[in-house]
Fold this sequence. Notes:
CATH superfamily of the largest domain: Nucleoside Triphosphate Pyrophosphohydrolase
Number of domains: 2
Helix content: 10-25%
CATH topology of the largest domain: Nucleoside Triphosphate Pyrophosphohydrolase
Oligomer: single chain
CATH architecture of the largest domain: Alpha-Beta Complex
Strand order of the largest sheet: 7-4-9-8
Number of strands: 10
Largest sheet: 4 strands, mixed
CATH class of the largest domain: Alpha Beta
Radius of gyration: 18 Å
Distance between the termini: 42 Å
Structural class: alpha+beta
Amino acid sequence: MSADWKVIRRESLLTSYVFSVERRVVDTGTEELVRDVVLHRGAVAIVAVDDLERVGVIRQYRVALEREHYEIPAGSVEEHEGDLLAVAVRELREEMGCEAQAWRPIGTFLNSPGWTNQTIAIFEARGLTHMPRQTMGPEEATSTIEWWDRDQCRSFLSSSGPIDATTTIGLQHFLWASGD
């Protein structure tokens, strides 16, 4: 029974500025098993909706994919940050060059609980005011912004290419909330 399972040893394998990797030995009550786990402080994502009822998406290069990828604005929680809404406000300013008058939490989900503890909190932002972007790093600095209407969102979601879960959840929320 999994209620009896207990982590009995931990070994740090890697520490980076975004995440760390830990090897855990688990006593199941009948045997020991070893699992490597990615530890992450969490992240936020934003469904930014403009006055024309379009969602802001970013196209940027992703090293892990070795190509550009469309996604809603998102970013990691820094070590000193505890307020997820404040992180979302920062990320919207950095990546989209926007401030929002109205914020609404959509939900929080686990990215992939089989190997990471990362959670992502998604917010909806409306009443946008545009300002200069405050990009961080070369990926954001060379990224481009697009504003998609409902038809473009539906088309993207039905495409054959892989779509990240955060963007899928955010765009599905946008379509669902508007009655689609």
